[in-house]
Design brief:
Elements: E1 2-7, H1 11-22, E2 27-31, E3 42-45, H2 47-55, H3 59-65, E4 71-76, E5 81-86, E6 98-101, H4 102-117, E7 122-124, E8 126-135, E9 138-145, E10 150-161, H5 168-173, E11 181-194, E12 202-207, E13 211-217, H6 220-224, E14 228-237, H7 241-247, H8 258-261, E15 269-270, E16 273-274, H9 275-280, E17 286-292, E18 304-306, H10 324-341, H11 346-370
Helix pairs in contact: 1-4, 1-10, 2-10, 10-11
Amino acid sequence: MIDVLVAGAGIGGLTAALSLHAAGIGVRVVDPVDELRPVGVGVDLLPYAVGELTQLGLGGGLAATAVAPEAAVHFDRHGERVGGEPCGLALGHPWPRYSLHRGALQLMLLDAVRDRLGDHAVRTGTAFVRLAEREGAGLRVILRDMERGREYGVGVRALVGADGLHSAVRATLHPGEGPPLWSGVRMWRGITEWLPVLGGQTIAMAADDTAKFVVHPVSRQARERGRALLSWVAEVRFPPAHHQAVAGPADWNRSGRLSDVLPHFAGWRMAGLDVPALIAGTRQILECPMVDRDPLARWGRGPVTLLGDAAHPMCPSYPVGSESGSQAVLDARALAQCLAYAGADREAGLRHYEDVRGEAANAVVLAARSGPWALGRSLPRPSGRRGAPGSAERGLRPPMPDGRP
């Protein structure tokens, strides 16, 4: 019998595997893809998540790979600066804030899991299918070998659904929930090597009443060559009928078209950056409607729970929505601590984990919907006050179960 089975080998699932192993708890991870590849664009790790990953021994790898932004600077569409604030260490945190390629982070976590737990710890080409009968203190889980198309059962003491926005584990626990909820925003993303912007350690963003553009560097290696690997996201608000007619289903890796995004940012400039030129110079553009789900009162039941986007998908809009990966790290660390503190009672540990993380994570989902930096609201003028409202780095990290701040 597997002690803890984690469905999903993303940021949350792999961090959970490392954390559970560090707590002396047996764990296996499954993922339906045949090979884990470095896909996606940039991801932000806020200081508290960096602190947690540092405790897992990944601080050196992050520092060697990521860029630590020192400030976030806000412009209007014509390039006039309208505000800004420090980030990470410059804001007084004990750990830096990091921006890096999502694929680089995932492979860093994967290498650490395989190094510490063995190659058998992560089984690709294997999908969660459904829950079967209870088996004593655990249950039987049906998995599918994707290559052979064969289903088989395994016994587990606990199942953690870390399988993302379209979580099969969540659908099993909460049937009839329907598709993710569209925010009214259509989002395009890309990543390309370019000249540094504002010294190469700055998050730059511009907005008007219907559109927003955010760009930040994500590679220390590019910075050391005097270049910048820039990850960008372009957001445009549309009327509700647009979603069904054009935007389509949520898929983080669906290809987008230059002709769809470029007209919305014609003539935009900020910090010497020609926004249309950057968009046009991107080899692959990804497109997706910005979506989330309504918070759940309880993520799981019995020996089953959820983690990361499977538990609390949130609109990925800077700054509050850039919490997604960081919140998954907090979930993973709290899960391991709660299971360790509960001893042999896995169900008690899972419910404790949900008590610790549920309310806080759900609050971030709602904040991403309605925070003061939401798309379409005017960017605030600089207040001169350190810690002005709107920063993703303040007030969102709850106490962990051992009482650490």
